[in-house]
Amino acid sequence: MSDIFMNTKEAAEYLGIHEKQVYALIKAGQMPATRVTGKWIFPRKLIDNWIETQAKAGLKEARKKAGRIEGALLAAGSNDPALDLLLTSVQASHPEFYIFSAAMGSIAGLKALGGGYTDVAWSHLYDPAARDYNTPEVLIPYLRDMPFVVVHLFSRELGLIVPQGNPLGIVGVGDVWQRHLCIVNRQPGAGTRVYLDHLLQESGASPDRLPGYDVEVFTHMDVGLAILAGKADAGLATTAVARMLGLQSIPLTTECFSMVLAQPTFFSKGVQAILDCLRSNPFQAKATALGGYDFKDAGRVSHTAL
Question: Is the Cβ–Cβ distance between 251 and 257 less than 8 Å?
């Protein structure tokens, strides 16, 4: 099929479900699809919108349930191996708190926060004008009039991930574009996708002519697995993921990974438990061992919009 439409098999692979489940969703009228010459086709953009809508609906339902659990926090947005370690650390040291986190990408997480679906958004949204991350200028459009606080969690190294030994001799994103190599991309709204688009624009590249640009996955680990399986020549992901999978990382930038939340939420016991674990030596030692992390300013309030 084209990059615009998917058939049933491709839609099932894209969603990570069985084809029978796709047919069941169509029959129930819960999934956007069009029948052409007796076959079902799925517009890729409509499927992406449907995924975001389903995620928000799930967050809304979880929000209702979490509201009945004392000490519960809902979080959504970007994903990261060190973040997973942090949430596990909070669960182990503060079993009285419940933190439910959904990996949706930075922009989707910010939209969920602005819409009242979640308490916390994990974000590493790049601001090309400021050459900085999670600035008020890039956050405010998603948070409306909400008084918010941005808390720096850690810095992480983002690189162009390639097979070990870099057999194609790739030197950067511009090289990938000029040589017409295949990439694996992140979903629209992911902070990594925003940064890739910035790099492509700087290189004068035309994304619609870059092989693999429309092949979208939802986590850094998925990017690494696609390269490990030989489905792409390169993709943007963290150095930590490259090390875990035995791949090679060509460093591109150091990102600020932050926690964005409403001002009153900052003073909640659950958030303070997250900050306690973030600053603890045992957590930082485990995360540092993954590679590519810096906790120098962990817990610092980097921006406020009150």
Answer: no
Q: In what order do the strands lie in the sheet with 34-36?
A: 5-6, 39-43, 34-36
Question: pLDDT tens digits, residue range 202-257?
Answer: 988 888 889 999 999 999 999 999 999 999 999 999 999 999 999 999 999 999 99
Record the tokens describing residue 22, joined without a space. Answer: 């796709």
Domains of the chain: 1-58 (1.10.1660.10), 69-112+119-306 (3.40.190.290)
120 sits in which H/E element? strand 120-123
Please give the DSSP secondary-structure letter assigned to residue 219: S
Element (H, E) at 244: helix 239-245
CB atoms within 10 A of CB 130: 11
Global pTM value: 0.78
Per-residue HEC secondary structure of 107-175 comes to: HHHHHHHHCCCCCEEEECCEECCCCEECCHHHHHHHHCCCCEEEEEEEEEEEEEEECCCCCCCCCCHHH
DSSP state letter for 187:
P
Structure-token pair, residue 106: 């930075």
> Over 80: is that where the pLDDT of 53 sits?
no
Residue 170 has pLDDT above 70, yes or no: yes
Q: How many CB atoms lie within 10 A of CB 209?
A: 9
pLDDT at site 69: 46
Query: Structure tokens of 151?
Result: 């808390």
Cα(5)–Cα(185) distance, integer angstroms: 17
What are the Cα distances from residue 194, in Å, to 42, 113, 127, 200?
Answer: 25, 19, 9, 10
Nearest C-alpha neighbor of 191 from the set 240, 130, 147, 127: 127
Hey, CA dihedral for 281, 286, 287, 290, is it positive or negative?
positive
Over the range 270-300, which residues count as b (16 or more CB within 10 Å of their CB) and which as e? bbebbbebbeeeebbeebeebbbbebeebee
Place of tokens 């900052």: 266
Q: How many CA atoms lie less than 13 Å away from 81 in the CB half-sphere?
A: 25
